[in-house]
Amino acid sequence: MMRLKEHYQKDIIPALKTQFSFKNVFEVPKLEKVLINVGINSQNKDAKLVDTACETLKRITGQAPVKTKAKKSIAGFKVREGMVVGVKVTLRGQRMYDFIEKLIKVALPRIRDFRGLSPKGIDGHGNFTIGFRESVAFPEVQGDTLERTHGLEITVVTTSENKEQGLALLKLLGFPFREKEK
After folding, report:
1. What is the C-alpha separation between 134 and 148, in angstroms, rounded?
2. Third-level CATH fold of 29-173
3. How far apart are CA 12 and CA 29, in angstroms?
4. What is the pTM of this model?
5. What Rg do the C-alpha atoms of the chain give, in angstroms?
6. Do 98 and 113 contact (CB within 8 A), yes or no?
7. Domain positions in the chain
8. Digitized pLDDT (tens) for each residue of the chain, 182 residues in all
9. Whole-angstrom Cα distance, residue 173 to residue 132?
10. Residue 173 · residue 152 · CB < 8 Å
C-alpha cells in the first residue's frame, strides 16, 4: 500500500502540473493542515461532554486537543466569557497525511448510506469542510462506551488559489466526490 505523501509527490504533483500548466513545482497546490473541531452546545452545561469530546479527539488524532473558550458573553446563547465552547486539534506533517488516509480509506466507507462527498463543501480558496453527525465512523471510537455521541467537523486546508484547483487536488488524493449534485 502506497502512503499518501509518497503518492502526492510521485503522481499528483506531475498530474496537477500538466493539468493546470504550472511552470514551477511550488505553484502546485498542496495540503497545509487539517483542523478537527467539536463544538460544545451551551445548553449542555455538562463537564462530561467536554471530557468526552477531548477523549474522542485524542483517540482519533493521537494528539491532545485544545479547549476553545468564548471571547465575549452572548446573552442570547447563554454563553459567558471564558466558557468552553469547543475543542479542536490541528494536524500538520506526517500526522496530517496519516489522518487523511484513515479518513478516506476507513472512516468515510463506514458512514451509513454514504453516496459520496458534496463538492459544495469546498470554499473559494480550495479548502474543504466535512461534517460528521457522529464520531462513531472512526474505528478508535466505540459507540457502546460513549455516554453521549457528538458530531465533529473536519477542515482540510490547501494552498490552492481557487475552487477548481482544490477540487482537482482532493480528487487526486482519493476523496470520493459525487459526480452529480442533487
Report:
1. 10
2. 50s Ribosomal Protein L5; Chain: A, (3.30.1440)
3. 10
4. 0.86
5. 18
6. no
7. 29-173
8. 458 889 999 999 999 999 999 999 999 999 999 999 998 875 566 777 888 888 888 988 989 999 988 888 888 877 788 888 889 999 999 999 999 998 998 888 888 788 888 888 899 888 999 988 877 778 777 665 666 677 889 999 999 999 999 999 999 999 998 876 55
9. 20
10. no
Contact assessment for residue 137 and residue 113, using Cβ atoms and an 8 Å cutoff:
no
Q: Which three cell numbers stand for residue 130?
A: 466535512
Please, how many CA atoms are within 13 Å of residue 73, restricted to the half-sphere of its CB? Answer: 4
3-state SS assignment for residue 29: coil
Residue type, 87: V
Residues whose CB falls within 8 Å of the CB of residue 95, separated by 6 or more in sequence, listed in order: 61, 62, 63
The one-character DSSP state at 112 is T
Length of the chain: 182
CA distance 29 to 150: 32
Query: What cell does 44 get?
Result: 449542555
Pairing state between β 128-132 and 84-91: unpaired
Task: Enumerate residues 6+ apart whose C-beta is below 8 A from 18.
Answer: none
Given a contact cutoff of 8 angstroms between Cβ atoms, the answer to whether 91 and 99 are in contact is yes
Q: How many Cα atoms occupy the beta-carbon half-sphere of 176 within 13 Å?
A: 12
Residue entry with cell 454563553? 79
